[in-house]
Amino acid sequence: MATVVQMLCLLLVAALWGGTNPLLKRATVGIEHVKEGSRISQFLAEVKFLFLNLKYLLPFLLNQSGSVVFYITLATADLSLAVPTVNSLSFLFTMLTGKLLGEDFGGKRAVLGMVLTMLGVTLCVFSSVSEADNAELINMTHSRNSGH
């Protein structure tokens, strides 16, 4: 069963991953103009372009801090709940952040997608809770029967 702290951590991860995606996208504008002769020097020039750009570096560091929180949370969270929850909610945070930044997010189909995603996450959470409740009920029943 997922605890409140685990769910808040997963929500934080989704916000950090999803919320930074539109910011990272905006900060990479202009990288296509970086031109070098060889593949290695092209790669190094692009890395330099990105990491000397604070508009890219700050969201990147926030995004990576989400990865650290996710890794720590996975030590105690149910993997079958954590992964779909974070992935689907990060998608929602990406869409919402993009919308706040003035990006077009796809209209009615996107809203329907968000609603269906939230429904799916809700079902995953309820399924996790009901499985834990069933396991607890079985353990309680087993304890009573073996105690007689």
From TrEMBL:
Belongs to the TMEM234 family. PANTHER family: TRANSMEMBRANE PROTEIN 234. The keyword Cell cycle does not apply. Pfam families: TMEM234. It is found in: Membrane. Residues 1-22 form the signal peptide. The keyword Flavoprotein does not apply. Keywords: Membrane, Signal, Transmembrane, Transmembrane helix. GO terms for biological process: glomerular filtration; pronephric glomerulus development. The chain crosses the membrane at residues 68-98, 110-129. This is Transmembrane protein 234. It comes from Astyanax mexicanus. One of its GO terms (cellular component) is membrane. It is a multi-pass membrane protein.
